[in-house]
Prior knowledge:
Structural class: alpha+beta
Strand order of the largest sheet: 1-2-3-4-5-7-6
CATH topology: Aminopeptidase
Oligomer: single chain
Largest sheet: 7 strands, mixed
Strand content: 25-35%
Order of helices and strands: EHEEEHEHEE
Amino acid sequence: MQIHLESPQQADVLALIAELDAYQQSLYPAESVYSLDLASLPTDTLLFAVARDGQGVARACGAIVVTPEFGEIKRMYVHPDSRGLGLAKRLLALLEDKALARGCRLLTLETGIHQPEAIALYARHGYQRRGPYGDYPDDPFSVFMEKPLALAA
């Protein structure tokens, strides 16, 4: 599988994002699903990565929205048929590297309590729990995490 930065505005990627939305809506009440319309963002604030199989089909994706204060991980999703291949780990590593190259020094994220695999992935990669940030409410269905990024010595 190849992973590259791409536009999210592609039919197969939009289908993957729609799967993610449906999955989250099956787990949480509507008011606790904090989806982000990637098309509404200025393109210079978005890092969007796609993992594609040997036939070029999008199998996983993830994004970081870079703001002056922090980068926020959004839209991380691996198609069920492609789980267990290390794609989330590889997506996360690429996105972290690209965010650091843009000068980002702190990554944040919001995930849900019913997604233990996601929480474990982030914890394994140095993310620590924290309280709500930005415009997020203190939602009992949410888990907030952060990770400082540092330049390699």
